[in-house]
Amino acid sequence: MSVFGTMLAGVWRWNVRILFLCLFLFLLISGMESTGIQVTREMFEKLESQFLTALGMKERPRPKSPSPIPSYVLDLYARQEGQSIDTTDFFLPKKHTQMANTMRSFFHIQSERDGQYPSNQMRLYFDVRSIPAEEVLRAAEIRLKLLDASECDRDGARDVRRLDVYNVIRAANPSDAGAVLHLLDTRQVDVCGGGDGQWVEVDVTPAVLKWTLEPEANRGLFLHLRTPKGKARATLATETAEQPLLLAFTDDKRHRESGEERKRRLKRGTLRRRKNRRKGEKNPQCQRQYMYVDFSEVGWNDWIIAPPGYNAYYCAGECKYPMPDYLNSTNHAIVQALVNSANPRAVPPPCCVPTSLETAGMLYLDQYDKVVLKNYQDMIVTGCGCR
Q1: Angle 356-286-385 (CA atoms, 0-180°, nearest 5)?
Q2: How many domains does the chain have?
Q3: Is-contact 62 300, C-beta < 8 A?
Q4: pLDDT of residue 285
Q5: Position 112 in a domain
Q6: pTM of the model
């Protein structure tokens, strides 16, 4: 087998492993005792460990306290759930997130030093040490809400100010000569155009990349809203629901496939789903079956924010000769089915297995109580076939 073939086989075995674990979870929460199978605590913990490993986690997160969930992250999750996703990447307009499958959010860590700045200046500090060293940072941005200046006219007049965002190289009061700042980006913002305020997004990828490589270099960010003399200053929101937020987009380098392979897989799955819908659900032939995994039933609802569960589906049914075209069986499966029909004792019939799968997004709290949005590849069966 070629190296490429070996890699594909490895990825396929990993995907089947995840679905196998999902099926075991389904059986557990459906009550395996009713089938005569005794579920021990040791069995459950071993299964839980294997499932978490398949999801890229070393252990089960145990949140210490309820954490606020940024509304922007919830909105992003909701937008993704409304789409049919066959890739783990985040495709966000005007953002460099195409190669990222994980997003983490970080709130500003407040300190007594925050009070030393005027209302049009702010120091922000985000602890990003929870980003795994093996993940690759693709993009990072801060989101902050700018409140209207108190003297804004309500007749629609604009008042454009400049917002400068700096990486703090040497910590000190920015007004002192000892402070060393590196300008990251500048935004022109209309401080009178937001009604109850407006959200501003600023790219800070270079700073966060340095922090992940050199944690001791993280001295935070400094924001300065330039205001003309004699004018009241616009202010930066600090309330919990509106406080500055850092979003880090990373790639964990798991299950990456080529664009052409993704297109071929999606096309095959679409054709099979279209033909499967024309078949009656009582058909004993190989087909997709319902399998809902409820996270609350296994005690994971304390760290998984959304979804509360999901329909993973599974494949079941007969693969007997002659097999219908919609199963898109391999030549080997057809030959095996033919031999089985002639002599059932010679070889078993082909197996009904997933042939196309889709990505599922999960919003959860990690072991550091950070809100994480991750897209997991090949979590939902969309097509079945005989192999």
Answers
A1: 30
A2: 2
A3: no
A4: 87
A5: yes
A6: 0.75
Whether residue 54 sits in one domain with residue 131 = no
Two structure tokens written together for 99: 């190669």
Q: How many CB atoms lie within 10 A of CB 311?
A: 12
Residue with tokens 């917002």: 163
Tokens matching residue 26: 């389904």
With tokens 């605590």, the residue in question is 41
Q: Using DSSP, state whether 254 is helix, strand or coil.
A: coil
Cα angle 229-230-232, degrees, rounded to a multiple of 5: 100
Both tokens of 383, joined, read: 């097509």
C-beta separation of 287 from 383 below 8 A: no
Note every long-range contact of 277-281, with CB atoms under 8 Å and residues 24 or more positions apart, other chains counting. Answer: 278/326, 279/326
Helix (H) or strand (E) holding 16: helix 3-29
242 DSSP assignment: G
Rounded Cα gap, residues 249 and 95, in angstroms: 10
Please give the residue range of the domain that contains residue 132. 89-251
Task: Supply the pLDDT for residue 26.
Answer: 53
Residue 270 lies in a domain: yes
pLDDT in tens, 7-26: 334 444 445 455 555 555 55
